[in-house]
Amino acid sequence: MPKNIVQMNNKYIKDESQRKRFLEEERKKRNRFLGLVLILVMLLFILPTYNLAQSYQSLQDKKEQYKQLEKEYKETSEQKEYQQDIAKKLKDDDYATKYARAKYSFSKDGEYVYTIPDLLPQ
């Protein structure tokens, strides 16, 4: 046999249900507030993380650029040394004559010049 349960409707029951509703509303407000605080904290962590990732990418680009500039500097230094060496040697008239004859195919009257590519000065 089923039993019917009837709720009593007195002042105590009304006060208790009102108190439960009030506590439930307070709990919802508190949870909503904590949710907003959590979202704010997440945003505060996302922005610096984004800036950090951007800075890291910029640093990697700078390192790559630095390596490239070092390589260019080394090539330029080697070329400068070579040019200085040639300039010093060209002060000698005999070397200058040989260099001009080999590089630009200059010849004396009645002389034929045959160029051999591997023997030309750079």
What does this structure look like?
By secondary structure, the protein is mainly α. It has one domain. It is built from two helices and no strands. The radius of gyration is 45 Å and the shape is rod-shaped. The chain starts with 10 loop residues before the first helix and ends in an 18-residue tail after the last helix. The mean pLDDT is 87.
Task: Describe the SSE topology.
Elements lengths: L10 H80 L2 H12 L18
Relative helix content: over 70%
The run of helices and strands is HH
- How many discrete domains? 1
- Radius of gyration from CA coordinates: 45 Å
Mean pLDDT: 87
Total strands: the figure is 0
Could you provide a short overview of the structure?
The chain is mainly alpha-helical. It is built from two helices and no strands.
Give me some keywords for this one.
75% helix; 0% strand; 122 residues; mainly alpha; 2 helices
